Amino acid sequence: MRHILATFLVLTSVSLLAQPTQKWLIKVGKLYDAEHKTFLTNQQILVVNGIIQAVGRNLNKPVNIKVINLGQCTAAPGLMDMHTHLLLHQKQRKDGLEMASKVSANERIRQGLAFAKLNLEAGITTVRDLGNSGQYLDLQLQKILADERTIGPTMYVSGPIISPPGGQFYKPAPADSFLIDQEYRIVKGADDAKAAVEEHIQRGVNVIKVCMNNDNRVLAPEEIKAIVERAHQHGLSVTAHATYDDSARDAVLAGVDGIEHGYSLSDSTLQLMAQRGTYLVPTDVSKQTADIKVAGIGMVGKEAEEYANNFLKAIHDRLRRAVAKGVIIVAGSDYYGDIALIERGKGAVDVLLSYYEAGIPVGDVLSYATYNAAKVQGIVDKVGIIKSGMKADIVFFRGDLENNFAKSLFSVKLIMKDGRLVYPPADSSAGRTNLTPGSR
């Protein structure tokens, strides 16, 4: 593990640009106000020692300050992806999960570090990793990413997914039965469910992730209730993988804080979620990504087009109904694919484009990945908003993010993490950075 960390730090060293700078004054053409879901023009951001000191027009310029002019860019709080699997890299094949889980622990950590860096470079400064990470490999990755020399987002982790017998998806072939013990914490009964939560708490996880249903089984009401009660007693939230309406409703009635996926939620379940303050993480995809994924499973022509369009129609309808009911929406990509045409960071940010394609206004879409995400994770006093007193996690997009969302979203100019400029990286061959303070 030490060798992996040392190698990674050498490969990702960023010279002077990534070092903490005492004072920055950044001038932008537009700034996204996450609290009010609006865009402000011609704004300046003053950052001192990693903390935002002031935001507004014509700020007083302190002495000995670095000025960056980004008049053609839009500033937004660092994006948050609340459903990641950084330690999983799965091909589109029937045995994809089994094959990805056979990768050694050291290699999974190495891959996870690389994926974390790609996520950061796409504008994601915070992730919540929800299982499929072996037995607590996510805690190891979290520790490495907490080192200020490592380039990657802040990471919150769940540990192994707490699941009914069979794990999360289906019963694997006998030769692949290792998958269940390696990737999940199977529970049998309410007492065992409580014990599973205690194990996770002792390890130091930040959130509890449960699998309400797989293809054949569900967590029993007394099991999910026991999990929620014990987690809440220790101040941890619980989020539930639930793809079917019945299992999602059972989870909401048991008091879970969030529902992951929720592809087929009924109006009555959405109404219950709104009443109880249960958030929804719609792990959706854009039209382009849907087409690529459908082609990857061998569908072509009219069949492929109809399949993709019907899926998109269903998830768009579910999202719009959830919004109309007043359900809290939180962005989460669930992107872990080993797909040549979809780079890892782009695959994560793609979920925001999917919400936009569903007809959600840009200001709302961005709130799902900033203010809402920070609020449900309990860190809205630190990140998710660009205002005085907040940590300086800021992403600067080229162009007008408000009016040219689909293009600007995938065109990152600059990223500030903990008050450090971490992207673009230094031009090590020239011995200097490839961004000059004061340039456009």
Automatic annotation (TrEMBL):
SUPFAM superfamilies from the UniProt entry: Composite domain of metallo-dependent hydrolases, Metallo-dependent hydrolases
Residues making up the signal peptide according to the UniProt record: 1-18
EC number(s) on file: 3.5.2.7
InterPro entries in the cross-refs: Amidohydro-rel, Metal-dep_hydrolase_composite, Metal_Hydrolase, Metallo-dep_Hydrolase
EC top class named in words: hydrolase
UniProtKB keywords: Hydrolase, Signal
Coiled-coil parts of chain: none
Domain Amidohydrolase-related: 76-422
Highest taxon of the lineage: Bacteria
GO molecular function annotation: imidazolonepropionase activity
Protein name listed in UniProt: Imidazolonepropionase
